[in-house]
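Methods — Computational structure assignment.
A single polypeptide chain was analysed. Its primary sequence is given first, followed by the predicted tertiary structure written as structure tokens.
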Amino acid sequence: MIKLYGEPTYVMRNKVIRSGKEKVGTTPETARKGTMTYKVLKAHCQTNDRENLSIKFDSMGVYDNTYVGILQTAIASGLKEFPMPCVFTNCHNCLNAVGGTINEDVHKYALSACKKYGGIFVPPHEAVIHQYMREMIVSAGDMSIVSDSHTRYGSLGSLSIGEGGPELAKAMLGKSYALKYPKVVAVFMTGMPKPWVGPMDVILSIIGEVFKNGFVKNCVLEFVGPGVENLSMDFRNGIDTMTTESTCLSSLWTTDAKTEEYFAIHGRPEDYKEMKPDDAALYDKVIEVNLDTIEPVIALPFHPSNVYSLKEIIADPKEALSIIDKNAKRTFENNPNVHWNLAGKIHDDGKLYVDQGVIAGCCSGSFENLYAVGKMAEYMNHGVGSFNFNVYPASQPIMTALMEAGTIKTLMDYGVRVKSAFCGPCFGAGDTPANNEFSIRHTTRNFPNREGSNPAMNQFSCVALMDSRSIAATSFNGGKLTSAEDVWQDITYPKYHFNSQIYENTVYNGFKKAEKDVEMVYGPDIRDWPDMTELADDLLLKVASVIHDEVTTTDELIPSGETASYRSNPEKISAFTLIRKDPKYVGRAKTVREFERARLKGDEKTAMEYFSILEKAGIFVPKDRLMNHTGIGSVLYAKRPGDGSAREYAASCQKVLGGFANICIEYATKRYRSNCVNWGILPFTYGTDPIDLQPGEYIYLSNIRNSVEKGLTEVEATVISEDGKTRVMKLNLPDVTEAESYIHRNAEVNKVRLRCFL
């Protein structure tokens, strides 16, 4: 049972108290300061302004999908030495499937940077980023910033945030992080999960209740209540990582003896600190979760919020397939050549059979999860046969502990493919299912094509999210969808032993040992970002794509998987922008970009060809104004873009292709909007749905620079159809800060890449 309280609510001595119902013995002002979030943010804020925070972090982490661009920005902006522990993990670009030497070139580049600037380098396949941060870096009461959206170490008492590259570059330069004081939502837990219920069942059940209504958007979740002490640390970590899919900003948990033991096991007892709210703490909202009532669930494609009872889907698989079919039709509206036939997944016995099982990444590759899978293999005593079942321990220390426990041998004996620490299946760079296959996974996301399929090549596959325990039950049952409840036998988990020697022998730790004379190692495909121009006085934008999905994910804006290897080359990676959502977008945007390049070169003949639409529409602008003061670019419309990853490439690739603006109803996450702003993309909103825009139409914004400088929140745009007919559209530009305005209007900011932090 999950209850939502949408009004300010007190939590007092492990009891939820509705505001105004009982006396709490304190004022609301004092009680709001009683949250753990308030205390941590206060300790890290560099000013006395408690509404507009200026945060300094204790540590940071980057990984090989993102760190090249981040380093390029920081180095170009004067990086001398990392001011805090900065971890470089290599858990994404680890398969040399594409790009020749490019992946290892990137790793050599990062190692040279760690030597030169004093960073920490974790070699490929040693640990996924969040597991290493948990094991070795974060402490209770601290704050970290990491270039990945699943940055969640709240179960250890750390209020950490996943952000895009520009924010990480600022942190590398010792600059503070701007944050409006967030709303704080208590997740009040009672009871104890059933033995066959895992962390994914719990968090998917929560996500199913809060995502679509935006209940926790950009909020901090505080996990409190008597139910917390009934969860192991692996269980808490599994829930914690997945809170990202609720669209919350971050998370924080009460700490206890189990937390203290976790730090001791990992050789860091001094990093433990008791974390708990005051006796009376006032929260903006409360989610009450009775763990006793949670049952195994499944999140159907194509979003973690599409949550259904696993028992019900097993009983009526036709209903599940009809839901997927409906979601697929909407998702692939711009790919008419994509076809699917999921009806064949229902066999003659009337049951739904899946094709693949995967347990991987920061949310599931834990010792406890994989130990349970091994025990279920023994209890069910049935090999996987031709069924494709893959598991990825989240770090080499976890791998060795599972070896010592005999779990690795057990898994291999029963046909499970045991692989190294690698995030590949989480973002489509490993174990991509065959065309028209259906995979069940304990990974972070099941967005369209995140598993690696490519609609541009008429490919289709899909993923449902489940807990490791039910995935194991299904995999050892020949792929027939099965709940762990139906096969469960009691498991006693052994004490976990952390092998620190592994990291001592492999990890380069150069913190406070910068060697300034070290030469950076540049591979042939590590390229600088192209110069970016300042915001022009006027803009004439061409609509490059209109997307009507309710939510557009960062995986759709710029896919992962095979594209990851190209992320050190801005031009090459930009060619994949929206390739799976709207294959025509890149071509349209590039065509417009060539006109802007012609304008900047003074090629009047070519530029005026583009500007001729204004005269056709009866809008007469002097030629000098057009050539010297009117920028040419593209614009994208999507209802709610930016759900998912923190990857800055979702925005930067648009900019590289000549994108000057986005229009949406609202931005799905703060991360994506921040990335757009930091790349000089105007973050317009437009409240009317459906929007009256078509690809190929133009949007003329007269005096837009002046509007930005004045801080106007509404601007008037002229929409021009290809036949010259015009109409007026009111666009909103809310919540643009002075710092954000500076990014847009300053040429030096964009000259190298972004230098808004100077």
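Note: The chain has four domains: 2-55+181-293, 59-178, 326-500, 538-751.
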